[in-house]
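User: Can you write out an input/output pair for a complex, sequences first and structure second?

Assistant: Here is one pair. Inputs:
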Amino acid sequence: MSAPTATKIGLNTLLPSIRRIHGIIREKSEVEIKLVTGDQLRGKINWIDDSCICLDTSGHKLIIWQHAIAYIKS
Amino acid sequence: MSAPTATKIGLNTLLPSIRRIHGIIREKSEVEIKLVTGDQLRGKINWIDDSCICLDTSGHKLIIWQHAIAYIKS
Amino acid sequence: MSAPTATKIGLNTLLPSIRRIHGIIREKSEVEIKLVTGDQLRGKINWIDDSCICLDTSGHKLIIWQHAIAYIKS
Amino acid sequence: MSAPTATKIGLNTLLPSIRRIHGIIREKSEVEIKLVTGDQLRGKINWIDDSCICLDTSGHKLIIWQHAIAYIKS
Amino acid sequence: MSAPTATKIGLNTLLPSIRRIHGIIREKSEVEIKLVTGDQLRGKINWIDDSCICLDTSGHKLIIWQHAIAYIKS
Amino acid sequence: MSAPTATKIGLNTLLPSIRRIHGIIREKSEVEIKLVTGDQLRGKINWIDDSCICLDTSGHKLIIWQHAIAYIKS
């Protein structure tokens, strides 16, 4: 399933946050995602869309709702 | 009650998150849903609409509000 | 106070979640509502509108904000 | 400060939730408001607008943001 | 930095909540702000805009996001 | 990656909160950011956009979602 280009979804690719995350995806960097639940998840981001981020973490694919994210550390 | 096709409801089926969840529904895969309350629910997703996800779990149907979901693990 | 028909309020009655809850109201089924606070409320749903759900529980009428609901179990 | 009529502010007075709360205000009924923080506040509602509810409780006026309300028990 | 008049920002000054807070600002009243985190902050409100409130508290200026406020006690 | 000027992103630079944060960025002031999770983060703000704030903290760049911020102390 090739990720649709950003223009087909509502992401504003001018935003520094979206540009930063697209850079993290391109570089396949390892990140830490802290959730509002207190969970700390480590892995690589596959894609981001208007509502979610897909994180590849120890063999599982997590669809994480952005509203549950506190921060991404890279 | 046959699930209305996505076009009758506001889901953007171009989004990778919606396409991924529609795939999970078609494949009737078992998933784990982590809520912002800390609850971890296991079951099969019946449908998704603009606000909620229906999870079939140990004989109960849960209407889960998307705003309460942290992530779906599949 | 007769509940106004859905068309006078903004509910999208095509959504599976709204159709499911309207079914629960018609059948006067007992439900469990889990809140993001961790509270678990049992009772019968009187009505649902754009922002709230009214639950009849042990003689009290609770106006529950939908943003505080994690899930409804029926 | 006479409370502006609902039409000057964005409240949809057709919604059962708004009609119920306006009834509670007219009847000056004592209510319990449960917040998402777990706080339980008792008092009388002075007014409701698009974002907040004003509760008169033991001599203090609380401006409560609706996003922090789990439910109102009356 | 003189606070821009409300008309330059999106505040609806007809809302009782905004009128109440503008009154608190004019009177330089001491208030208590309870956050959804459970924090209780005391101080004087400098300004309010569409998203935030500025609280002057023991020599610090806090920019508080309204989404994190449970209530203001005055 | 030079931060796009505010006009290319949706920030309302008339808002006192945005003007205050742009001032903090220009002055490279050290701030404390309290999250709704209870986390307290110290560092310097690199940029702010419609959804996030970038904080430079002990060698890491955190992309913090504004919805997770309770307040900024400066």
